[in-house]
Amino acid sequence: MPKITIIGSGNIGLSLAKGLLAKAYCQAEDITLTRRNIKQMNSEAERGFKLSDNNREAILRADIIVLAVLPQQLNQVLEQINGAIIAEQQLVVSVISGVSCKDIRLQLGDDIQVVRAMPNTAIAIGQSMTCIASDHATDHHMAEVTRLFETVGAVVTINEDLMTSATALCACGIAFFLRSIRAASQGGVEIGFHAHDALKMAVQTAKGAADLLLQMQSHPESEIDKVTSPKGCTIAGLNEMEHNGFSSAFIKGIKLSAERAGGLYKD
Q: Which of 8, 45, 58, 90 has its CA 20 to 30 A from that of 78?
């Protein structure tokens, strides 16, 4: 099993570690988590993860090094680990928004293998949508990163210039879809359901809609057509939402998130 060091134990870093453990990709003792204050990581220590507050030491025996810090923290981290990575033996995987493979290699060395990955927080339950890309990583390393993230969800390989778009659609997208479920549950309360019942109904309906598309391999509009009838209640509700800008607002939100993701590292 590969030894993995995850630098940055925030939401994505911890979600990745827990997801890999849940899917038996590796054992807890094969994963090292780094954080500036490891005293706040008692639950992770109890699970068996190795902990470190020294990034340079933490990567020495790692096969895969995952960079999962905030964009504004990256330069400091790269300075700490610069010169300690063995290009022929170690692979760097970055899940940092707005940071290209070239940005990382400029500081670590042009011979370092770097793959970008953009998962979302559903990785913790093995349901992430992860996009991966690289500008010059080997096929072997791309296959290894694909295998790593396939243990915790679905993987799509894309061109690197689309990674900020993937951030908006998949990583930020979790929040967008959760907000739409929340809105549906609030609508349920408006029409008479108790809050907990309305939320359960909205969540299962959303899950059913997603599974319907995945399993039937169909287009959303074809499934919508099956539940809309002339002068019916479904088309009335859909049209009201569209008149109030539902699709337009959703699309504009994704576009704005993509623009912001592209400028995070530069800021």
A: 45
Distance CA 195, CA 186 (A): 7
Identify the segments of the chain with pLDDT beneath 70: 264-267
Query: Which tens digit of pLDDT belongs to each residue from 167-209?
Result: 999 999 999 999 999 999 999 999 999 999 999 999 999 999 9
Residue 180 CB contacts under 8 Å (≥ 6 apart), including other chains:
206, 250
List phi, psi (to 5°) of 90. -120, 145
Domain with CATH 3.40.50.720 in the chain: 4-158
HSE-CB for 114 with a 13 A CA cutoff: 23
- Residue 44 · residue 57 · CB < 8 Å: no
**The domain made up of 4-158 is a member of CATH 3.40.1000.70:** no
pLDDT tens track for 22-35: 888 899 999 999 99
- CB of 119 within 8 A of CB of 152? yes
The burial class, CB within 10 Å (0-12 / 13-18 / 19+), for 232 is exposed
The model's pTM = 0.86
List the beta bridge partners of residue 31: 4
Q: Does domain 167-263 have CATH number 3.10.20.90?
A: no
**According to the model, what pLDDT value does residue 267 have?**
46
- C-alpha 43: how far from its chain's center? 22
